[in-house]
């Protein structure tokens, strides 16, 4: 960029004009022909700086303009405000389950009986499709409280088995009616097309009888 | 398209060659806004408004589409959904402020584009259809802008809808029935809001279609220019790209500076506070005015206060529509053979009086309908029609136009010693260059 080349170069028809400095301002932007001429010199012209700067600005400006257009589709502030839900679990008897809602999605909260806990712990974890122990899926000292998303990991249907009288599947847990996935007592996938266990959402015990999901 | 010496499209890459042979879209773009469209070399910055108008339309369409993702067209939920856009949707405040100020800036550049056409006689043969298509776009914009203003369902939205549809009730016999048909009810409500939303989403795409026709019609004779002298040879033109893409790009930069200054620091400057009050069918705001871009027409509407054969209300409606319909006949109302106002001393003077008159109409249109503003609007309305129907046809009979340059290049190069020629383009009169 150090040396100044005359934009009209050697093909200028009027020699006097080509060497007048003011000519640079008269002539406007470069065209292809000018590029070829510049290549004959050291390949750079002062005007290239304006070109590069203008196009860079255009690029950055376009990117900045696109950001809000994309980001407006992300969950909005009022949707994110639904991100946690507190649930009173004091009235769920052992052997019962409830379905609650978190982020507009159903959640199973199940109070496991000692027999169900024993059955879940008896399974050889290594033989599972998504190997996890019941202890890994519950909180320490509260192994009877199984909190999972009520969303099948196959294609998102709500499995049965959360309410009295519903089909619990072959493994005494949940059964998804859409494509026949069977989950066991710990809501682990045992049979059918689903790839993963029912997801355990982030949750914590606020007290012995209240949990906060999310 | 326009001239024999237009650069033909030559694909630079094998891919573009392959595409061009199957779908000559690259060729169309090149010939329309690329190096293949020769443009008069003397266009001033007044010729940037058209490109800026196209840009403003695209901004309105893009921001409008994303606002529609979040807007609820229901008389119960519309106002709240707009507030939700302002508070909760990511950058929703920005998108809405861009859209509502974008409408103002769209009208601003379109009006300047129209005034440029008026001054330089761009409506004259052979560009009458270009002019008329532009007026069609203006009318569609007005309908779109009005319906868009109804959507937030604030007080101004509601009463604007009521007053404007009330215009149709002035039509004899069928008027009241027509108004009920337009609203789908006796007053603006769910039915009206829903159809306004549907049409507000549709019309910009119709505008885009008419815009394509507008540009197509323009490219048949090619762009007009400040001298009004038609292009005679290659020495009179420059390729659109890079010369006018750069010039329009510069104008775009200035436009965006002003636009974002308003969007960022004065986002509600063009709005009305009353529109942040939810629509209330039982209470009219004390001072109800349309958006600023309707003020001149609103002034004409209110200027008719006396029943004369027809009721005053109908005269107002007719006057308002006539103010635009009149412009369709402009190419035949102005019979001067000289195109550009720059060479027409008398026309030039009356042009500026007309602009002042329209500014006065705009001024009184935004004020309450009381004296002396009513009288001012009547005088200004009378002058507006007199300009087009009496003064303009008479000017050529009294005017002595200034001598025209024999060509664009002569006008541009007059008085300069050096024969300035852009890089890669031969200077006029250069040996070895054959002129068409």
UniProtKB/TrEMBL annotation, chain A:
Family of this protein: Belongs to the Rieske iron-sulfur protein family.
Cofactor note: Binds 1 [2Fe-2S] cluster per subunit.
Signal peptide from the UniProt entry: none
Location of the Rieske domain: 114-212
Annotated protein name in UniProt: Ubiquinol-cytochrome c reductase iron-sulfur subunit
Coiled-coil intervals: none
Source species: uncultured Sphingomonadaceae bacterium
Sorted UniProt keywords: 2Fe-2S, Cell membrane, Disulfide bond, Electron transport, Iron, Iron-sulfur, Membrane, Metal-binding, Oxidoreductase, Translocase, Transmembrane, Transmembrane helix, Transport
PANTHER family for this protein: CYTOCHROME B-C1 COMPLEX SUBUNIT RIESKE, MITOCHONDRIAL (PTHR10134)
Note: The Rieske protein is a high potential 2Fe-2S protein.
Subcellular location: Cell membrane
Catalytic class of the enzyme: translocase
Catalytic activity: a quinol + 2 Fe(III)-[cytochrome c](out) = a quinone + 2 Fe(II)-[cytochrome c](out) + 2 H(+)(out)
Xref: InterPro entries: Rieske_2Fe-2S, Rieske_2Fe-2S_sf, Rieske_Fe-S_prot, Rieske_Fe-S_prot_C, Ubiq_cytC_Rdtase_Fe-S_su_TAT, Ubiquinol_cyt_c_Rdtase_Fe-S-su
EC number: 7.1.1.8
Lineage of source species: Bacteria, Pseudomonadati, Pseudomonadota, Alphaproteobacteria, Sphingomonadales
A GO molecular-function descriptor: oxidoreductase activity
GO cellular component, one term: plasma membrane
UniProtKB/TrEMBL annotation, chain B:
Cellular component terms per the entry's GO annotation: respiratory chain complex III
Residues holding heme b b566: 113, 214
Cofactor annotation remark: Binds 2 heme groups non-covalently.
Binding site for heme b b562: 99, 200
GO molecular function: metal ion binding; oxidoreductase activity; quinol-cytochrome-c reductase activity
Binding positions for a ubiquinone per the UniProt entry: 219
GO biological process: respiratory electron transport chain
Assigned protein family: Belongs to the cytochrome b family.
Function: Component of the ubiquinol-cytochrome c reductase complex (complex III or cytochrome b-c1 complex), which is a respiratory chain that generates an electrochemical potential coupled to ATP synthesis.
The protein's name in its UniProt record: Cytochrome b
Organism whose genome encodes this protein: uncultured Sphingomonadaceae bacterium
């Amino acid at each position: 960029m150090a040396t100044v080349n005359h934009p009209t170069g050697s093909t200028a028809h009027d020699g006097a004009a080509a060497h007048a400095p003011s000519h640079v301002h008269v002539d406007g932007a470069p065209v292809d022909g000018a590029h070829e001429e510049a290549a004959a010199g050291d390949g750079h012209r002062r005007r290239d700086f304006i070109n590069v700067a203008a196009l860079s600005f255009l690029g950055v400006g376009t990117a900045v303009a696109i950001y809000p257009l994309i980001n407006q589709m992300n969950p909005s502030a009022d949707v994110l405000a639904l991100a946690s839900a507190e649930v009173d679990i004091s009235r769920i008897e052992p052997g019962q389950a409830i379905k609650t809602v978190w982020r507009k999605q159903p959640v199973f909260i199940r109070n496991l009986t000692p027999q169900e806990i024993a059955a879940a712990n008896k399974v050889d974890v290594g033989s599972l499709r998504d190997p996890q122990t019941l202890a890994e899926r519950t909180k320490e000292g509260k192994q009877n409280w199984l909190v999972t998303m009520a969303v099948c990991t196959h294609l998102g249907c709500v499995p049965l088995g959360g309410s009295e009288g519903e089909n619990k599947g072959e493994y005494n847990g949940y059964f998804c009616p859409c494509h026949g996935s069977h989950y066991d007592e710990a809501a682990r996938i045992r049979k059918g097309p689903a790839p993963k266990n029912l997801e355990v959402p982030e949750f914590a015990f606020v007290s012995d009888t209240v949990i906060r999901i999310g | 398209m326009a001239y024999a010496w237009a650069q033909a499209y030559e694909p630079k890459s094998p891919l573009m060659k392959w595409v061009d042979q199957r779908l000559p879209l690259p060729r169309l773009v090149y010939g329309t806004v690329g190096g293949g469209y020769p443009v008069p070399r003397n266009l001033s910055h007044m010729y940037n408004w058209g490109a800026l108008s196209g840009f403003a339309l695209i901004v309105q369409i893009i921001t409008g589409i994303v606002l529609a993702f979040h807007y609820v067209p229901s008389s119960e939920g519309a106002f709240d959904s707009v507030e939700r856009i302002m508070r909760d949707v990511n950058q929703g405040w920005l998108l809405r402020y861009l859209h509502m100020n974008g409408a103002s800036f769209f009208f601003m550049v379109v009006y300047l584009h129209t005034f440029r056409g008026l001054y330089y006689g761009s409506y004259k043969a052979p560009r009458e259809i270009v002019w008329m298509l532009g007026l069609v776009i203006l009318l569609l914009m007005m309908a779109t802008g009005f319906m868009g203003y109804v959507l937030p369902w604030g007080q101004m939205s509601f009463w604007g809808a009521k007053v404007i549809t009330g215009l149709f009730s002035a039509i004899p016999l069928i008027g009241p029935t027509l108004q009920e048909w337009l609203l789908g009810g006796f007053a603006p409500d769910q039915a009206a809001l829903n159809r306004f939303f549907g049409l507000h989403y549709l019309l910009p795409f119709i505008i885009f279609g008419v815009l394509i026709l507008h540009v197509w019609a323009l490219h048949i004779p090619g762009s007009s220019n400040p001298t009004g002298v038609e292009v005679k040879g290659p020495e009179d033109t420059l390729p659109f790209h890079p010369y006018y893409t750069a010039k329009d790009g510069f104008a775009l930069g200035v436009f965006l500076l002003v636009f974002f200054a308003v969007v960022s620091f004065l986002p509600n400057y063009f709005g009305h506070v009353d529109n942040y009050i939810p629509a209330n069918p039982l209470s009219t705001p004390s001072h109800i005015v349309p958006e600023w871009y309707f003020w001149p027409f609103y002034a004409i509407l209110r200027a008719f206060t006396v029943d004369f054969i027809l009721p005053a209300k109908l005269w107002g409606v007719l006057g308002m529509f006539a103010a635009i319909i009149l412009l369709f006949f402009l190419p035949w109302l102005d019979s001067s053979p000289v195109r550009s106002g720059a060479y027409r001393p008398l026309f030039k003077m009356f042009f500026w009086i007309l602009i002042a008159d329209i500014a006065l109409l705009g001024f009184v249109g935004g004020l309450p309908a009381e004296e002396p503003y009513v009288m001012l609007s009547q005088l200004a309305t009378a002058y507006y029609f007199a300009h087009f129907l009496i003064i303009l046809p008479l000017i050529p009979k009294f005017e002595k136009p200034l001598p025209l340059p024999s060509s664009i290049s002569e006008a541009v190069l007059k008085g300069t010693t050096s024969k300035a020629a852009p890089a890669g383009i031969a200077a006029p009169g250069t040996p070895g260059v054959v002129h068409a």
